[in-house]
Design a protein that fits this description.
The N and C termini lie far apart (48 Å). The strands form three sheets. A seven-stranded mixed sheet has the order 9-8-7-10-11-13-12, sandwiched between helices. It is globular, with a radius of gyration of 18 Å. The longest helix has 16 residues. A hairpin with a 7-residue loop joins β1 and β2. With 283 residues, it is of the alpha/beta class. 33% of the residues lie in helices and 29% in strands. Bound molecules: S-adenosylmethionine. The site of S-adenosylmethionine has 26 residues, from β6, β7, β8 and α5. S-adenosylmethionine (SAM) binds next to β6, β7, β8 and α5.
């Protein structure tokens, strides 16, 4: 019998993906996790009824979450990833030869283990890189307690419900500010501004109180149905966002990194916001 798996993120409408073959389905210590195959999107991972990633389109936000802050910084050596247990952001971060250390703090070990087993093309060996330390812990606790300082912090979290609700709080962002080097930049995933405007509005209010420079940039993620996907930006040095296109082009060319979505021009354009998103920044 054909099985359709609903995404239950939105209260008034549902999207469904056909599950041609379910590879794993169970409750982990923290959330309900299902990995299945879909003919259009390839392998799909859902947590608590929300699509996290698919084989086919994961490159989009993984590239935008990793390359935008690292190339804007220009000399990032230490990178912290909160969440992202599938290893996709980590894979992109490690492509930067200048990165000497990457710490990935994920609350749910099962996400890492099951991604390695069923979605190995996402991390592509990233967890075996000697520059990487995997920490299984709550991100809020980690940023409050670590003695390390980071040039870039990338928060690849689930939606602000369940274990990730704390990753959208003042306490968490204060912790991030605490362990950010100067210059340093923090980026967070902020969902779909059209469907969940309060997520972005709430984050931007806190960012404006805590950081010298704040912004939103967008990407189009086919499996996050409902308009462009928002990534929030907070830096203690405004020049990072204002980096010139020519400088980005040079850094990108020197990195030798091949991408499928990110380019220096896309980077600059991503910060140009439609009016309805711009209003959330100040509203
Ligand atoms: N980019 C995806 C999205 O936007 O839906 C998220 C992918 S990644 C799988 C999200 C990860 O954040 C999950 O593996 C989840 O376990 C982790 N996570 C949730 N809350 C966390 C917390 N408090 N500390 C650390 N990791 C957390």
């Amino acid at each position: 019998m054909t099985r359709w798996i609903d995404e239950t993120l939105h209260p008034h409408f549902r999207c469904s993906l056909k599950a041609d073959r379910v590879l794993y389905e169970n409750k982990t210590e923290h959330q309900h996790l299902v990995i299945f195959e879909n003919a259009t999107f390839g392998r799909v991972m859902m947590l608590d009824g929300v699509v996290q990633l698919t084989d086919r389109d994961e490159f989009i936000y993984h590239e935008m979450m990793a390359h935008a802050p690292i190339l804007a910084h220009g000399a990032a050596r230490r990178v912290l990833i909160i969440g992202g247990g599938d290893g996709g952001v980590l894979r992109e971060v490690l492509q930067h030869r200048g990165v000497e250390r990457a710490v990935l703090c994920e609350i749910d070990r099962a996400v890492v283990d099951l991604s390695l087993e069923h979605l190995p093309t996402i991390s592509r060996g990233a967890f075996d890189d000697p520059r990487v330390e995997l920490v299984i812990a709550d991100g809020v606790k980690f940023v409050a307690e670590t003695e390390e300082r980071f040039d870039c912090i990338i928060v690849d979290s689930t939606e602000p419900v369940g274990p990730a609700a704390v990753l959208f709080t003042r306490a968490f962002f204060e912790g991030c500010r605490r362990c950010l080097n100067r210059p340093g930049v923090l980026v967070t995933q902020n969902g779909l501004p059209f469907l969940h405007p309060d997520h972005l509005r709430g984050t931007m209010r806190l960012f404006c109180e805590l950081f010298e420079d704040t912004a939103t940039y967008l990407c189009d993620q086919p499996t996050y149905f409902g308009g462009p996907f928002a990534l929030a930006w907070a830096a203690n040095e405004p020049s990072l966002r204002k980096v010139r296109l020519a400088a980005l082009k040079e850094r990108f060319a020197q990195s030798g990194i091949e991408t499928n979505y990110y380019s220096p021009r896309v980077h600059k354009a991503a910060f140009q916001l439609p009016v309805y998103v711009q209003r959330l920044m100040t509203g």
